[in-house]
Write a structure and sequence with these properties.
Number of domains: 1
Bound molecules: glutamine
Distance between the termini: 19 Å
Radius of gyration: 21 Å
Strand order of the largest sheet: 1-3-2-4-6-5-10-11-9-7-8
Order of helices and strands: HHEHEHEHEHEEHHEHEHHHHEHHEEH
Number of strands: 11
Helix content: 25-40%
CATH superfamily: Amidase signature (AS) domain
Length: 503
Amino acid sequence: MSELIRMSAADLAARLSTGEVSSVEATQAHLDRIAAVDGDVHAFLHVSDHALDVAADIDRRRAAGEQLGDLAGVPLAIKDVLVTTDMPSTSGSKILEGFLSPYDATVVARARAAGLVPLGKTNMDEFAMGSSTEHSAYGPTHNPWDLDRIPGGSGGGSAAAVAAFEAPIALGSDTGGSIRQPAHVTGTVGLKPTYGGVSRFGAIALASSLDQVGPVSRTVLDSALLHDVIGGHDPHDSTSLTDAWPSFAAAAREGARGDVLKGLKVGVIRELPDSGFQEGVSASFRASLALLEAQGAEIVEISAPHFEYGVAAYYLILPAEASSNLAKFDSVRFGLRVDVPGGTVEDVMARSRDLGFGDEVKRRIILGTYALSAGYYDAYYGSAQKVRTLIQRDFDDAFAQVDVIATPSAPTTAFRLGEKIDDPLQMYLNDVTTIPVNLAGVPGISIPSGLAAEDGLPVGIQFIAPAREDARLYRVGAALEALLVDEWGGPLLDRAPLLGGAR
Ligand code: GLN
């Protein structure tokens, strides 16, 4: 296996900048890796056929002395929820099979402008609904740690691509956990930015008040570097914040140097139920807290009494917004059209949506339409919005006492493919600790915290910060990461079986 695929994006970028390695070499190494392992992993729905041309162009510009971005020449995987002009964008759905967008998502345009090299589009649950990538209309992605297990979802493709060394970094989207939960089960890093911190323009909408695009990587610094590229105000997104953001990479580097943990107040939620959490997940969480404490952090018990109602509120708000967002897939303007001989335009729409959408999407459209219907609106959608406000207040109160909140990123390690597919409620409960973060609009990061003793599978720890304090998460995340990698004697992913390492 080429050394080039094992490097972090930051290391690769450093070698690209000195000319020691070319982008063509780096890109070819990743394409070779995809060819070698993606038949098993199925992280990609589409592999770019002009990545090498893009890489060659970057090499040419560098040779000509052009000033290029920090990540110029580094390959990037892109979740299929993000529209691209040069590759199909399906959002994991049959209804968009082969769809070519007339424009790039802002985050994709920014990545291209920064010289990143798009490798391809990654697999996902249909319209980002799911926690296992099994709801993809194109077949599931497999977890590189154990191919019989789920890679998380909805962004299982991006997480698996990064975990299997098919790409050094990737773009994901997170509406209720789709960046952080896949990171948890694949031993990777992922961050959901503050709502409004990263443009949603060109991200195929699931639930507009919850969706955020964010980075996926193997190190905290790599996520920060990618976040620096994609973040910041975008006039095309009316909810985009106009803040001037600090350098997230600088924050991650500061964290890795140490010292930031001394006096840091880390909140743990009293009401987080003990039950439902796998022992290895809880044990890893406790061990990380002990490590933080040993470095001078203070662990403070906080109360967030409405946290546990997050999932219930989310499964009213999300379907409500999704049913409205998905109304545009009407067989006239986008994608699949199934002719109904002699039928009306409504017959064609109904037939196309029936054949184009999968079961989970239909379930949520029906749920959302019901929740929004006259007579039920206040009882369901209205109540859920009130719960959302209570959760936001819980966070406000908590952040008056602590700098960050820590939780396990998800209740269990990667479950087996097929295990929860017929039990939507079990699938939904995967996101108990990630969903409240989206409801409150605050940032959250998941970093690997170890392997569960009982099954040897990766576990993540989540840190949550107040809105606009994404840099704090990079600082704290990088600090803990440095301690853990030191303790492990190297990155966790070096022990993943696809690499031939012991597990
Ligand atoms: N698993 C959650 C859901 O099914 C989150 C999805 C997401 O973040 N896109 O809705």
